[in-house]
Amino acid sequence: MPTDHTGERPAPRSARASIAAAISTSLEWYDFFIYSTAAALVFNVTFFATDSTVVSALNSFATVAVGFIARPIGGILAGQLGDRYGRKPVLVGAVCLMAVATFLIGCVPNTQTVWLAPTLLVILRICQGLAVGGQWGGAVLIATENAPAHLRGFYGSFAQLGVPIGLVLGNVAFLLATGLSSSDAFLSWVWRIPFWISLVMLPVAFAIHRFLEETPEFKAVAAKIAQTPEVQRSPMLDVIRRNPGTILMAAGANTIGIVFFYIMITGSVQFVTTYLDVARSTVLTWILISCVVMVPLVPAFGWLSDRVGRKLVFAIGSAAMMIWAIPMWLLIGSSSPTSIWPFAVAVLVGVVAMALQTGTQGTLFAELFPPEIRFSGASLGYQISAIVGGFAPFVMVAIINGNPDNAWRVGLFLTLLAAASLLCLYVIVKKRYHGDFDSQVSAGVDDAQPPAQPVR
User: For residue 258, what are the CA distances in angstroms to 187, 385, 393?
Assistant: First the structure.
């Protein structure tokens, strides 16, 4: 087996990097998701309680959205640092920030000062958003840039495994918290335990710092920059100047996946527990099962993208979400405490559609930009779409407006977003954006190989 300029064989390096990416993203997303679950189940009846369930839910989900607004800022900061100083230190810093912020959310006091707890939650949620904004690009590039070109879809998908695994961990934590405590105890203090557990991320950050090498592609770029006497430009400004259309189209193509996901795993929980009187534990159990189903599908579709192309698999995912959106929400709306199967079918089919995009999006975004601005470009495109996703549960509550018969309108909203995603993806294909393999080879990445097709 050929070796790269580090003297290490690509396969062991790829496996180690992909495992590190999967573990770090799983813990990051666990922390980010448990806030959304707490917002749906706890904060709306504690810190944001009002006489109106709609107003309480809107206020609670508004703080969820704050984290998404902060994500592009985190992506910008991380892109600047990641393209100049390396992928690994940014990933380590993001993991540490997320661990501390999430732990402190679990320490927010119940107080008679009505503004204090919401203010603290907003500040800490911003820190979570900054951490996720930095973590995603670092993890994806750690996985993809350490992988052989012909297996980048497969290895890159491991960074995306953090989404379903993190959600599984979060739901297990809340299922145990709700199942092992009374309702009053859960709302009083037990909900804090899943947040306190996040401190386990600090040893993970140390392990990544201690045992994981920087990616060969960044080492090659850093060596080239060091030999160039000209003053470096800002990577973020450079990518915006050179690739504004790519960033916007990538963000547009990715929006449906993020909105679909958060409306399904957060919005639907609030909907069926508030309006249909379905037990919290029942809903969380089916969300948990659906995410377990999603875990093997993500690398499977990542592998498929190595065979047939990223954009084709990604497009099938958008089309599947467009077709399923309205039936999914008609099923969710017809669920009841004695008939949960419509909800189960809705989310199980939904995760299959989402996995088509989730398994390919990291590698697809990375391949749209050259190595010297890749962290900035991929992060910015992904995190811009996250802003819309963060407001998705808020929009869902407004669309339903207290009337469960309006559930189908949420499906229509998702259908229109999926159509827009396909249009943005068509523009990407039409302009023939594709992987920067030629520059990788010239930069000295020995295991880079030209793609089987000119445009994937």
Answer: 28, 7, 11
Q: Which helix (H) or strand (E) holds 97?
A: helix 87-105
The helix/strand count (H/E) of the chain reads as 20, 0
Write down the pLDDT at residue 455: 39
Q: CA quadruple 157, 159, 163, 164: dihedral positive or negative?
A: positive
Fold adopted by 15-210+234-443: Growth Hormone; Chain: A; (1.20.1250)
432 by Cβ neighbours in 10 Å (0-12 / 13-18 / 19+) ranks as exposed
Chain segment 240-299, per-residue pLDDT in tens: 888 888 889 999 999 999 899 888 877 888 889 888 888 877 888 888 899 899 999 999
Domain layout of the chain by residue ranges: 15-210+234-443
Q: Give the CA distances from residue 346 to residues 64, 259, 260, 413, 456, in Å, rounded to whole numbers and listed in that order.
A: 24, 16, 12, 16, 31
For residue 108, give the 3-state DSSP assignment: coil
Kindly state the DSSP code that residue 4 receives in the 8-state scheme.
-
Q: Read out DSSP for 270-305?
A: HHHHHTS---HHHHHHHHHHHHHHHHHHHHHHHHHH
Cβ-based neighbours of 137, under 8 Å, separated by 6 or more? 75, 78, 79, 82, 87, 90, 375, 378, 379, 382
3-state secondary structure of 339: strand
Q: What is the 8-class DSSP label of residue 371? A: G
CB 99 within 8 A of CB 205: yes
> Could you tell me how far CA 32 lies from the centroid of its own chain?
9
Q: What does pTM read for this prediction?
A: 0.79
Calculated CA dihedral for residues 110, 55, 60, 412, nearest 10 degrees = 160
* Contact call for residues 23 and 204 (beta carbons, < 8 A): yes
Q: Is 186 in contact with 177 (CB distance < 8 Å)? A: yes
Distance between CA atoms of 183 and 342, rounded to whole angstroms? 26
Tokens of 318: 């958008």
For the record, the structure tokens of 99 come out as: 């661990």
Strand partners for 265: none
443 in Cβ contact with 371 (< 8 Å): yes
Token pair of 110 as six digits: 């119940």
Give residue-wise pLDDT tens across range 170-204.
878 888 888 888 888 888 889 999 999 988 888 88
Whether 440 and 145 have beta carbons less than 8 Å apart is answered as no
Q: In whole angstroms, give the CA distance from residue 39 to residue 124.
A: 14
